[in-house]
Design brief:
globular; 2 strands; mainly alpha; two-stranded antiparallel sheet; single chain
Length: about 140
């Protein structure tokens, strides 16, 4: 079994409290920035090459989610939507285990093979998402 539940060891850093706080404050800052209509960064890779970078559309996807439009968020960047939903699930988990003082989810050390499979899977997901972004942008450009 890769994952196991265990209580927090005395003097152990409370990772859920630390990361939950950092992610929550960062998300709140980003949400306020977008709601206030402040300017966002323009992707230099996209400006120079005309090709969207692998992360293009994350800000627009986040903004779409803030406005209650998950479909548009998915169209802007599918992997970003999955990542943002994963972060939301993690924040709920972190809040519950910190407040209720429940055992924490930890993972056992992974084998070299497991690490390789995870790395290859992440790279494949990013590449597939990038191909989608390139195709999607060219398809949208044709419709304009």
């Amino acid at each position: 079994m890769i994952f196991h539940w265990r209580p927090l060891i005395p003097e152990e850093r409370d990772e859920e409290l630390i990361w939950g706080t950092i992610i929550s404050l960062s998300g709140l800052f980003a949400a306020c920035w977008i709601w206030l209509g402040l300017p966002t960064l323009i992707c230099p890779f996209h400006v120079i090459t005309g090709i969207p970078c692998p992360t293009c559309g994350i800000t627009r996807a986040f903004s779409s989610l803030l406005h209650g439009d998950p479909r548009t968020a998915f169209l802007f960047n599918p992997l970003a939507l999955i990542m943002l939903l994963g972060i939301a699930i993690y924040l709920v988990y972190a809040e519950v285990v910190v407040v209720v003082k429940l055992p924490r989810l930890r993972w056992n050390p992974l084998s070299t093979r497991q690490n390789s499979i995870i790395r290859a899977s992440v790279i494949l997901l990013v590449v597939m998402n990038w191909i989608y972004l390139i195709y999607h942008e060219r398809f949208i450009a044709v419709l304009r």
